[in-house]
Amino acid sequence: MSLIEFSSFVSDLATHSGRAILPFFRTALSVGDKSSGADFDPVTEADRAGESVMRHMIRQHFPGHGIIGEEFGSENDEAEYVWVLDPIDGTRAFMSGLPLWGTLIGLTHHGKPGFGMMHQPFIGERFSGDGGAAHYQGPHASRTLITRDCPDIGGATLMATTPDMFTGNAADAFARVQAKARLTRFGCDCYAYCMVAAGHVDLVIENGLKPYDIVALIPIIEGAGGIVTSWDGGDPTRGGAIIAAGDRRVHEQALALLAGR
């Protein structure tokens, strides 16, 4: 079964997880803290409900597949096919009543991201890609996603979820890029990456990501013509320090600045 043939099942995962999550949005939901006394790391009943639904569907339809999820950990993660799930990427926005969050559904084959979707059920938007092409489906239109040209970092729009994710040398590295970019915006979590794919943002630079934060987004950005790597230009699949760009030229310039060159 090719990765693209999983697209219908991914769509079903998005639909059912959305139905599980939405009843909690903009309500007096219960919020927990996974940080064990460190920086606040929220988790909600909605996160658990969304991931539980997806895990049940995957086990039922593809019992030999592995799963890596933010809320319930890993199972059979050495399998040929592994699902990488983040039921609510942007939990802080979710708990604040802002629709700048999404459900991330990624599928790897032999460890390589091959298909991904970001679903925003409140707005009714879906961004998907297989590394070769990427698509948008919204309440009023559907279209192919294509990144925009940005030959020079001086004309770039740069995004990151929060400046708090950069400390020490990482803060200095991000500041070098920010000083050159035309515009910097914070917030949006997974939406920032989808805006790169849609041609509205040029760069996303982040630090401290987990695999479930990025795996689903890689095939979307690459399918739209962009590039995603680690800060040293390596494989982004395991997370960590990540840079996504719509144009390879601005990606190269940003990498050099991150490295202090």
From TrEMBL:
It catalyses: L-histidinol phosphate + H2O = L-histidinol + phosphate. Its EC number is 3.1.3.15. The keyword Amino-acid biosynthesis applies. Its cofactor is Mg(2+). GO terms for molecular function: histidinol-phosphatase activity; inositol monophosphate 1-phosphatase activity; metal ion binding. One of its GO terms (biological process) is signal transduction. Pathway: Amino-acid biosynthesis; L-histidine biosynthesis; L-histidine from 5-phospho-alpha-D-ribose 1-diphosphate: step 8/9. Pfam families: Inositol_P. It comes from the Bacteria. The keyword Amino-acid biosynthesis applies. PROSITE patterns: IMP_1 (PS00629). It is an enzyme of class 3 (hydrolase). Keywords: Amino-acid biosynthesis, Histidine biosynthesis, Hydrolase, Magnesium, Metal-binding. Mg(2+) binds at E70, D86, I88, D89, D213. CDD domains: Bacterial_IMPase_like_1. Belongs to the inositol monophosphatase superfamily. This is Histidinol-phosphatase. It comes from Saliniramus fredricksonii.
